[in-house]
Structures
1.
Amino acid sequence: MSAASSAASGGAQPSSSRAKPANKAEAAADWADGRLGIYSLAKSNLRKIFPDHWSFMLGEICLYTFIIIILTGVYLTLFFKPSMGEVVYHGSYAPLNGIRMSEAYASTLDISFDVRGGLLIRQIHHWAAIVFVAAMLVHMMRVFFTGAFRKPREINWMFGALLLILGMFDGFMGYSLPDDLLSGTGIRFMEGAVLAVPLVGTYLQMFLFGGPFPGTDIVPRLFTVHVLLIPGIMLGLLVAHLILVFYHKHTQFAGPGRTEKNVVGMPLMPVYMAKAGGFFFLVFGVISVVSAIATVNPIWAYGPYRPDQVSTDAQPDWYMGFSEGLIRLMPGWEIRAWGHTLNLGVFIPLMIFPLVLVAIWVYPFVEAWVTGDKREHHIADRPRNAPVRTSFGTAWISLYLVLLIAGGNDLFATHFHLSINAITWTMRIGFFVVPVVTFLVTKRICMGLQRRDRDKVLHGRESGIIKRLPHGEFIEVHEPLTQAQLYKLTAHDQHRPAELPAAVDENGVARKVSLTQKLRAKLSRGYFGDEGQIPKPSAEEYREITSGHGHH
Amino acid sequence: MSQDMSEENLPERHGSEGHEVEPHADPFADPGLPPHEVRRTDIDERAARRAERQVALLFTVSMIATIAFIASYVAFDIDKIVFIWPFGHVSILNFALGITLGVALFCIGAGAVHWARTLMSDVEVADERHPIEASDEVRAKVIADFKQGADESAFGRRKLLRTTLIGSMALVPLSGVVLLRDLGPLPEKKLEHTGWDKATPASPIKLVSMNTDEPLKAEDIQVGSLVFAKPQGLAESAENFQEAIATDAVMLVRIAPQDIKDRASGKLGFDGILAYSKICTHVGCPISLYEQQTHHVLCPCHQSTFDLSDGARVIFGPAGHPLPQLAIKTDTDGNLIATGDFNAPVGPSYWERA
């Protein structure tokens, strides 16, 4: 009976009130919508607006190189043997014929010399990794310098920073897998660093390597971490990163018609599908050509790893260069007491890794605390309009470059015929001095650019046209800016420094000012005081100058 | 704190946020989106058709390049090396595959971007942003829902349930941690000893050349040369060779006895021949660069420099302590022998190192 009634009601009420689809494609979309809800999903996303600026494609390079790395990496796993079992090589590469080596190294030689296209894919994989980390760093700098990490994007900033660190480590593990003489030296360095951890260092080392160095476990273990664990975490973070980009909508630079309440640009379909989709192919194409003409990591030239052999000029990939610099600059401080050794010379550089991540993570919150700003920000700052932040960024980059140079101090010594001791000492001093100098210089440049913007707003653009006045005076004609230009140059926020509350309250009772309040006021003065920014012109100033032509 | 150092200090938002400003009242007011500037392809059908042909050409080149890729894969031998200016001697297969793949991919991208830039609408559109924060009503509804759910679960009321749940959840990951125990052995004294440990005065171990596997005699070690040695019986084909050589590798130098500054190290040597660990005490790289005149050795990884004439003291770089020394003498046949282990643990320092 119930079956009959349900059949009757089914007949009376059609299952869907939807009109007949116009064609097969619509029918297929209807089918999918009935099961996946694609129309609701596409409603706000198909014609989603993205703003246009060259710097917004840096993140795209990261995404695309990541995809290239996954594609080529899967191919490489088909041929690579992550084993430290010893074999005697009898492959195509004659110079190493008859040499004992691990299966990992032998299979990498096979990929390079016996699998057609294997060398190309290996090189694309490696080049893409190099570009991936570089693009992440530059993308992060763009976000930092434009203040795009501010509310509501702080968490996405943290995701991004984590992706950068994970990408660096995964790159390190990746080039450690072939078990060649260069990468084995890198693993040895890692072992020494692990041993420097107080209390548990030797336990970590034994558990990591499955026994004394080098053992036979490290390559297979790194392989699993490199191809599964880290990429899995990265993929999750990356998806979350992109969902948040969609959800927050992209930042945009100030300009006519662009406000905190809108996003101006072109729609995802078709313009950004074509541009961004096309850009993937451009990136892939360029990396393929580079891999065809430029050798990267020629492991056959290094030979198999042996713990008692090493090549000179041993260098990590560029993104590990700063850690190499840290370890080379650090004095060999060892504290020995009560039968124990604290190896600060290695442990301090090792600890800089997590500290760097923490510093990057907390910066958005520190700046928000200093400004006390809890509003959403969708208009990207011009770097000059945030001089202290910009100077922090450039100081950071300069420190990074100092460490990169220090990491290659042997190359600088041999190529420029300098004393390695002199370079090391210069970089030790530079480690402390260069960031400070860079900070001060950047701030002056930003302030100068702010002054120039102010002049441009108030006095117009220097036209280069010289005019002779009736009484003989020569003047340069300044062209007034258009409304759009005026808006663009005055659209940025300018914070006033936070004031400490009056020393006594309205009843004349001394007020307690906490240390954090004092610190915040001090920082705020540094960021936004007279030394931190040039007041942007006010409408009154502008009117006074532009209406007072007769007086000038 | 907030009553004194509040958001009152924040700058006012400029332009068209909130209320529209009269342009005359504010010279810096937002003039709004500029009118769209048409492109040639928007108004000239011939220009548009030309752009279409350009895009189609790029896609066609891509197709040809893919066919060329397949042809290269079949045609070129993997071991053929040719000279291609300016890249030098390159594998023709790698070169051809990379270039054709690159062109095939690049032309798809270039075509798509060119299409977007010339033929797709470039009218800028504005999308409204909405605050990320939910409205107060939504917030109140969610909090009420959550409270209702929490109440219905009685998580807060039935304390026994809550405590035992937290306890069990806290304990269960321990199983996973315990399972990691067999990742490796305990360190015990493994880092303190090397293969030379087995040497005793009764059964010494000969030092053999790393290159020839032949026992080294005192006269083999000349002033100014650096000779690498290993314990006799350690074959390259041995299963534990990599682990053994990571600690047992020795470098031998001969220094005129009057040049040896550190008496104690001189006594551990034989007739000016000193045997030091080849493994750097910084992070374990093998040391390989020797300066004959000064008897300094330099680690090529991080440039730690040791003075072998002065007990292998660290004179520069990041290493924290001297290289361990192996006491050597000669047997009746004049072969260099060791009768015990190094005088200190080999390699980088660690917490338990005394």
Note: The CA atoms of residues 302 and 476 of chain A lie 65 Å apart.
2.
Amino acid sequence: MERVTPMSDTAEKVKKIVVEHLGVEESKVTNEASFIDDLGADSLDTVELVMAFEEAFGVEIPDDAAEKITTVKDAIEYIEKQKAE
Amino acid sequence: MGIASPLGLGVERVWKRLLNAESGITAIQSFDTKDLPAKVAGPVPAGTRSEGGLDLNEWIPIKDQKKMDRFIQLALVAASEAVEDSGWMPEDEDGRCATGVMIGSGIGGLDTIYETSETVRAGKVRRLSPFFIPSALINLASGHVSIKYGFKGPNHAVVTACATGVHAIGDASRLIALGDADVMVAGGAEATINEIGIGGFCAARALSTGFNETPAQASRPWDENRDGFVMGEGAGVLVLEEYEHAKKRGAKIYAEVIGYGMSGDAYHITAPPDNGDGAYRAMKAAMRSARLEPEQVQYVNAHGTSTFADDVELGAVERMFGDAARSVAMSSTKSAIGHLLGAAGAVEGIFSILSIRDQVAPPTLNLDKPSRASVIDRVAKEAQPRRIEVALSNSFGFGGTNASILFRGAP
């Protein structure tokens, strides 16, 4: 079964957090968008973004996993997987 | 030049209100003061830019606001006004590399440190913001201004408590004189109207506590009923430029920095010696560097914080000027805006420059009856039109650090 659908609650919430934290337009926050390459984040922004995900979804994202979350889709998939476990 | 102050934003607006003898001191609203003896302060008023208030969204992108403490935000606001006013926007790399920034602060990101320590206390040390450190560091005011404008010259920050602003202007002007830069964006910023800022100065018995019901009367330099300083917040920024460089590009020149002097008291961590010798030596050094005689100075913007030390400074100024004291006007603009700590010297430096431009000495509010008589006119309550060719501005800080700076009208 496909875990991530474009309109899942998680996806919507993740995108909202990205919009708020990076101050970017919603239309730019596509699944494929890279935080650094496409959305203007720097390395400190991504650290803060991961913390915001942790807080919002009540999950823990260890540093080695956080390093691999570079796109919106990465974040959605990781969080959905954590929540499913 | 640029100002963010308790009398609002914008040099001309603040100056006009100052000359009208308006006060920016109000009852503290931003937190509960019930357990604190001091309940008044001078915050930068909220509002739109067009009405002279601060709406951060007009100045700094929302996503960047959380990356900087309020003192940095205020520095950026004042620096934006100053840089725009100067018209200096270097378009080539050489110009950018010859433009530096030296904006200091007395205390730095106190709000940020306070809030972050609350997070730690709540057992969430792993949840600290990655922006905590760069938000609190004092030199990040200079850092943010340089990043915003691409100024790649000397990037420096002064930290000398309440003398910071004068030291920044003086040191930056020396960097230009030494050839390290052609242009320096210099000044000070401070934002410590919070529980530990007010509480800390209360503990040092430094703040006024007797005028909580009448905030506009709380800051009263030299008055017999003064009982401590009133904390203000804000920023003052000046664009200093090598004279030929400024002339060549047809810049608007307000004034010239013609003298700068520094000294240390080597006496006590918070109090000056009764004889005011450190203040005297700082002024003397400034006069020496300008090769001026006392009768050539017509206005002094005093440190005058509304504490016992006002009379110490008065004594030092009388000693400095000797017979010329009769013809000098001295006022403390802290009576209207409170004490902006690390920003004080920069904002007061701007006031000193404007006193020359407009030939008027700004007033000392609330000076009903001086605790000590003097031949020096302290410009009680109302601004005075005067002939002013040269103005001296004093700032003294905890640790026994003293700085004096001399300005002359545009050549």
Note: Chain A touches chain B through eight residues (CB under 8 Å).
3.
Amino acid sequence: MLQIKEFEQIIMSRDSTSLLQGLCTKSLSGNLGQSTIRSIIWKIFLGLLPLNKKEGTDHWNAKVNNDRARYEDLIKKHEIDPRKTQAANSSEDDVVDVTFCDPLSQSQSNPWSEFFENSELEKVIVQDLKRLYPEYPFFRTEEIQNYLKRMLFIWSKENDDISYRQGMHELLSPILLVVYRDAQDISKYEYMMTEEEDQKLKLILNLKIDAYDLPIFKISNRIQYLLLEKKDPELYRHLIKMAIEPQIYLLRWVRLLFGREFHIDDAIILWDAIFSDCGGFRAEKVSSSDIDLSLVEHISVAMLHYIRKSLLASDSSYCLKRLMRYPPVEDVHIFIEQALESRSRPNSLLPSMEPLT
Amino acid sequence: MSYSYLFKYIIIGDTGVGKSCLLLQFTDKRFQPVHDLTIGVEFGARMINIDGKQVKLQIWDTAGQESFRSITRSYYRGAAGALLVYDITRRETFHHLTTWLEDARRHSNSTMTIMLVGNKCDLDSRRAVSYEEGKKFAQQHDLIFLETSAKNDENVEEAFNYTARIINEKIEKGIIDVTNEMNGVKVGNAPTATTNLLEKPTTSEPKGKCCG
């Protein structure tokens, strides 16, 4: 069993630095392929299963149990049933406090007001989930939809300054898919067998890589104006001449980490590289300033460069269409290769690629 | 292809009312029952004919959710026409029109033509907003009004074309200054004068009701 071997390698490894390096190299070279322990590797990259020199992987079980318990607590915390509160109150002193428990009361502390707020939030999430990957049966089942709904709901409640934003569900769903695939393959392994959803939630709790915390305009401008000018000046000038504003297409590219531009399995390969590249996720306390998106920026430039011929030959309407509907790509790994190469040589132009007709 | 004018449009309204479906039906003549969520903005273009003139419509389709508002707002400026869309089966999308309208008026130029669109009129059995209510709202706020079905391709052409005809009239009357691109109109390289003077301009109002 390949996955068990892979897994044992990780568990047995006593040298966490070289283990991490090995996993990063594998991910960046696109060699994670069909790995059936990708979810564990992502957890390492995202700092959910921290590798430290002293303990190696010994503390993982405790960590996972801890995370699960925490998620259970969060579920309980946000499960509001005013009827229960009412019942509890009345059994104590046999009188229902109407000012407190009246569904029509405007009082802030009225459990009903939070109950209504919650069902409003759930409605918004469900509305978007209905439109999630319509062509992908996995995401259409009630079970998966409910998992996603609960995770997004609890995340939004816990982060009410940001709350739910459209697109979050599209960041969560590939993660869920990866965890599910692994869980199916590895079901004999007790480690992964039950209640995976808490771990999945933890992932998204820490996944602050997207545009919610980082000003998307800044990133978009940096990609199209600064980086592209250095890497492909001709294309840079053309896009300016065509009055293409960077955030029009880059908002989606960056916010969903290319989830819309490629098939979900290809996007996952890009995510292998992005997660492994960004050590910021593994910091003790992840803050948006730790997150280094440079690989995402260089991948974007490589993607622009890849379609340069058709962009250079087009007017602004067609350019926009091309950028909003990225053409199918045989092997997305070329973008990682080129992005790494390009980042290591900041001042050199991108090499010409196979012309795209 | 050469055109006499280019008109810029923006499509706005709550999430899930069918903005992207209207655009897709208009540009591609097809309907997608479950459409991807719009992240930020989408873009579409199509050539139409107004009074014998080739007019290119450049359409910005915006995301409905509040979190995108700061980005989508920047598209009001420089738009000649706006389609403000609600879903006739979801009353709250009708209630939000006032907010949308305030937002549009605040951030657009004063000559922008706004078309109110009650979409999904094929779902008459689930109707939550009557045709009369839509029409009344439009009259009160000085908007043009149509009910459409992106699914059945009813009144979709009309919604885009009717708006274009009004913009064209505003140009002819000198209300819109075509030399200022901020008004959402660009002069192309084809002749802008009405080519066939004998042809009557078709400014007659299309029937507002669909499916009826």
Note: Chain B has one domain: 5-187.
4.
Amino acid sequence: MQSNAALEYDYSVAKLFTYTTILFGILGMLIGTLIAAQLAFPELNYFFGEYGTFSRLRPMHTNIVIFGFTVSGIFATWYYVGQRVLKVSMSESKFLMFIGKLHFWLYFFGALVAVTTLLLGYTQSHEYAQFVWPVDIAIVVVWVLWGVSIMGLVGIRREKALYISVWYYIACFLGVAMLYLFNNMQIPTYFATEGLGSVLHSVSMYSGTNDALVQWWYGHNAVAFAFTVPIIAMSYYFLPKESGQAIYSYKLSLLSFWGLMFVYLWAGSHHLLWSTVPDWMQTMGSAFSVVLILPSWGSAINMLLTMKGEWNQLTDNPLIKFMVLASTFYMLSTIEGPIQAVKSVNAIAHFTDWIPGHVHDGVLGWVAFMIMAGIMHMAPRMFKRELYSKKIIEAQFWLQTTAVVLYFTSMWIAGITQGMMWRAVDEYGNLMYSFIDTVTVLHPYYAIRALSGVLYLAGFIMFAYNIYKTMTAGKELTSEPQFRTPMA
Amino acid sequence: MFFHWLEKNPFFFVAGVSIVISFAGLIEIVPNFAQAARPLIDMKPRTVLQLAGKEVYMKDNCIACHSQMIRPFKSETDRYGNYSLSGEYAYDRPFLWGSKRTGPDLHRIGNYRTTDWHEAHMLNPPKIVPGSIMPAYKHMFTNVADIETAYAEAVTVKNAFHTPYGPEFKRTREAWDAHRPKVIEDAKKIAADMKDEGVKKMVANGQVPEIVALIAYLNSLK
């Protein structure tokens, strides 16, 4: 079977998912920027009648960037990385090609339907699991197709040992499947009665405190298995490939992987500190959140040390810049999270803007940076053309880095300010501020955050333009570049 | 070495990951499940109109900015009332605690706000609370609330989870037709305290505007 000829990998599915990554990225970030601006300038709520309010748009923002942008990015990189590390081409199996294409088109139309249902206000009101039950079923089908793709490719692989990235993609598949299924246990009311009311409505099988526990076990770990695990998969592949450096330590990657798998899921209850969830569970959540620093920093340090002795690449290869900064933001985000999970800190931080601040230094600085770097690494190899412009990448890098810094600093200040004002008492022990005082004081920070959204979105549009120009006008390559991605 | 073997055997790798990620859920969620589902003594489930209001609350996604979870701190009990108890949520499917307070907590808003206040506030929040950044929800005054779906929800939770709704709550359309006037009665009581002529007219015609259902729900939060 094995020949020495280089394999011709088939990137048709990877390309399709790359397009949706960019499409949903623009859409999700656009809505995000709009809702950020709405908090600073409430008049912006009235552009589209009932469909344009902050409350209706916010789940669209979160779901489009999670299930649109990020998940597309995960699939795009899987259909690229998977073939290459398993040393097998998609074109070798008609079945897998068919599954891959089916996977994409079901995903794409499913996503359009899903976004429409949210816009119309059909929701289960579980954060990041808002989709109504028919959409849930579609998502399960799409996810199973991805599973078939992974396992099919693994089944016909030539490289017997699974590379680190594959561990993480498999873990992403398994983790999200388990979490999504258990958190979306719903009974459709139409079928539980003699066809009364809306077909789309359903009730949760868990109530109150139980529902909260299951939801945040999901909510926290959906972040783990969609925003962390597959992004680590990307960094384990793209950083060594781009830099030409071997991963610093295999043992560290083993420790980080299994540590992350075991520890992450315990930390979900830190979203419910000081709630009616039993105290022992809250403390478990806090304790495991702190332990979580170990595997998180393990991966990040492994990335940074991979660059040992090659730091000069940071100055002349903007893709390395993106990836190194992504790992650094990953470290920042994974030390910040545990700090917020300490009960006394959480008493101030919870319910405030520090939480979205924390989320966004992770997703803007780590997740999106890594996905964009991955796409910029893949594009010349998929389209057989040089990246269109290095200048644009450099400008985009600084624009977006500034945006991330503005975002989290403004939200840190806003969050701590509000948390302190809620509890402030005067000399007689009475509350010092009415609630509205703690809202109006945030205006400048909300304005800064909106500005950071504009900057980040502008950077992303530059990125989209650069990829488009690469596809259409980039200099053609005669052979596949070995390590460093060629760019004009 | 064990891990080298595992990396070459995807089946066992998958099994290994599955086992390792299952621990937390089993140990943290399962043991307390039955106890956490118990309601407070004598607690009544929400009426159909209130449930319809809860669905409006979900549809326009009030939880994006409002929590329903008063934490056991003096600063919170001073501001919002008694801290929240697990049993109070026993009939809430889904739970609506929220995770962000861009606006204040609403768990006991029924204790200190009235129908009249909500009506004026939902039409123009900054007029009632100067400096408010909450958008107006004028469409709730003309959109019709889906009380039939709310009834279906009540029947479903009664049959599936023994939520204590009366014997008249049945799966059939006849049972719903028989219950409907009761919902309209409840809506009329809310509308009587309101000023909006359009709302009064809709309720008189047997339709429930979303705002009426929502206010019924907010008033029930105590």
Note: The longest helix of chain A spans residues 208-243.
